[in-house]
Amino acid sequence: MSAFRVSVQDRLFDVGEVIERMRLADPGVGAIATFVGVCRDRNEGSGVESMTLEHYPGMTEKAIEAIVAEARARWPLRACEVVHRVGCLRPGEPIVLVAVGCEHRGDAFAACEFVMDFLKTRAPFWKKEGSGREQRWVDARVSDEAAAARWREGS
After folding, report:
1. Which residues span the domain enclosing 134?
2. Where are the alpha helices (DSSP H) in 123-153?
3. Structure confidence by residue, pLDDT tens digits, 10-49
4. What CATH number corresponds to the domain at position 30?
């Protein structure tokens, strides 16, 4: 089984299952850093009752795989899983999981943050938030671009 996986799915994911799979796939993994993004009940001062995530099948997975490949070129990754949900989500539900396994924690933390920062700016997902009968598409954030830019500047 590969220690590198990308999944775009509508079903919930189990963080513990992903960590266990990564740990068992490579006994050289000494640190696993994870990030879980969760659907909030507010955004920019407005209530959010639901969020619908859409993607372009095939293209989205390839974009995420390219991000993971870039992380592998920068850090000595031994394992990495990215799971991103699509479909209608409710506040409190998990949206995304990035899990990175390395020999040491510093590399795992840095690579996990890198993958998440670029996932927000390079992976083709479209978000629509709903509150009551009102729905609105969510634009990309300047802060996400700034987070990704620091990696391009060599930080």
Report:
1. 4-152
2. 142-152
3. 999 999 999 999 999 899 999 999 999 999 888 776 788 8
4. 3.90.1170.40
